[in-house]
Each structure stands twice: as structure tokens, then as C-alpha cells.
TrEMBL record:
Keywords: DNA-binding
DNA-binding region per UniProt: 21-40
InterPro entries (alphabetical): Homeodomain-like_sf, HTH-type_TetR-like_transc_reg, HTH_TetR
Zinc listed as a keyword: no
Protein name: HTH tetR-type domain-containing protein
Family matches, as Pfam families: TetR_N (PF00440)
Residue ranges constituting the HTH tetR-type domain according to the UniProt record: 1-58
Keyword DNA-binding recorded: yes
PROSITE patterns cross-referenced by the UniProt entry: HTH_TETR_2 (PS50977)
Organism classification: Bacteria, Bacillati, Actinomycetota, Actinomycetes, Kitasatosporales
Length: 194
């Protein structure tokens, strides 16, 4: 199944959800169509697994970084750096931008995709929010926003910044937001919340 997910990630990034046929996905995965049908009953379910896999990697990365926060120091710059590094890193590369945008466009046109995306984003915000709430509790902070709401806001910001950066790169134009500017803006956000 892992090979199908890896192959599907490549196929969806290259051709989009509708353009990536099951045959092409299997070709990218080095598997037969029988392997697809023995694991999935729809292309959307495979697409969701691709999406979840990437989200799991991102959440695991955030969890590792939050575990390293020094609770004796000011939280705002530390949290700002963690999330700025996500905005700035190759961890969320061009494939992520294509796949994420593809999912959002599908959700605007297809109720089943919309329900799946909303459920996924709520799950992801709760996962990151739980990490943030635990950190704030360890530090004795009562944030102005619950962790889940803060995570939802950070998710929306990440999507916007990554999409703009991909467009600027495609257009051969330097990104107007430097890594330091992003970190500074995030630090201001965390200061206002914490």
C-alpha cells in the first residue's frame, strides 16, 4: 500500500486528481491496477491517504519541535521560529502545494470531497491544538485563543504563504516575504495570543 501512496502523490502532483488515471497512478507506483482495487474502492480514498500521510509528517515535525521548546524562555519567538520554519522549509514543497490546492478545488465542486477535507482539517487542527495547549499549560499561560483555533489560523496562513511562494517561484519573481519577516509576523501573533 505504501508504494501506491507514494506513486499516487507523484501522479496527483503531476496531473491533478482528475488527470491522474488509476492506470497512471499504478504505473507511478510500479503496481498493477489489481493492487489498487485490492486496497481502495475509489480514487478519492487513495487521495485522502496521500493527504493524510503528508499531514502526519507535518504534525510529527511540529510535535518534535514543540517538545524542544525551552519553557523557561519567552515562548513567542520560539513558536514563531517553529512555524516560520514550516512556512520556509522544503518540508512543504511544491508537491504539497499542488496536492493541497487540488483538494481545495475539488472540495468547492464535490460535496464528498468537501466533507472529507473539513473532517481532515478539523482533525489536524485538534492534533496541533492539543500540542499547543499542552505547552501553554506547562508554562502556566492562558492563551487568548484555544490551541485548536490558533492551529486553524496557522494552517490558513501556511496555505496562503506556500501558495504565494509557489506562484512567485513559477513566475521567476523573488518572494516579497523574507524568512525573517514571516518569523516577525508570527512572533507578533504569538505575543498577542499568549
Amino acid at each position: 500500500m505504501e508504494a501506491l501512496i507514494v506513486g499516487a502523490e507523484r501522479a496527483f502532483a503531476e496531473r491533478g486528481f482528475h488527470g491522474a488515471s488509476i492506470g497512471y497512478i499504478c504505473q507511478c507506483a510500479g503496481r498493477t491496477t489489481g493492487a489498487f482495487y485490492s486496497n481502495y474502492d475509489s480514487k478519492l480514498k487513495l487521495f485522502l491517504d496521500v493527504f493524510r500521510r503528508h499531514s502526519d509528517r507535518t504534525a510529527d515535525y511540529i510535535d518534535e519541535r514543540i517538545a524542544q521548546v525551552d519553557t523557561e524562555r519567552d515562548l513567542a519567538p520560539q513558536l514563531a521560529r517553529i512555524f516560520a520554519d514550516i512556512f520556509n522549509s522544503a518540508h512543504l514543497d511544491a508537491r504539497w502545494v499542488f496536492i493541497h490546492l487540488e483538494f481545495r478545488l475539488m472540495a468547492l465542486r464535490d460535496r464528498e470531497a468537501a466533507v472529507a477535507l473539513v473532517e481532515h482539517e478539523q482533525w489536524f487542527s485538534r492534533r496541533i491544538g492539543t500540542m499547543l495547549d499542552a505547552l501553554f499549560e506547562r508554562c502556566g499561560h492562558r492563551p487568548a485563543l484555544p490551541g485548536t483555533e490558533l492551529a486553524g489560523l496557522l494552517g490558513a496562513m501556511t496555505r496562503g504563504v506556500k501558495l504565494d511562494r509557489a506562484i512567485y517561484a513559477m513566475g521567476g519573481v523573488e518572494d516579497p516575504l523574507s524568512s525573517d519577516q514571516v518569523a516577525g509576523a508570527l512572533e507578533g501573533l504569538f505575543r498577542s495570543v499568549v
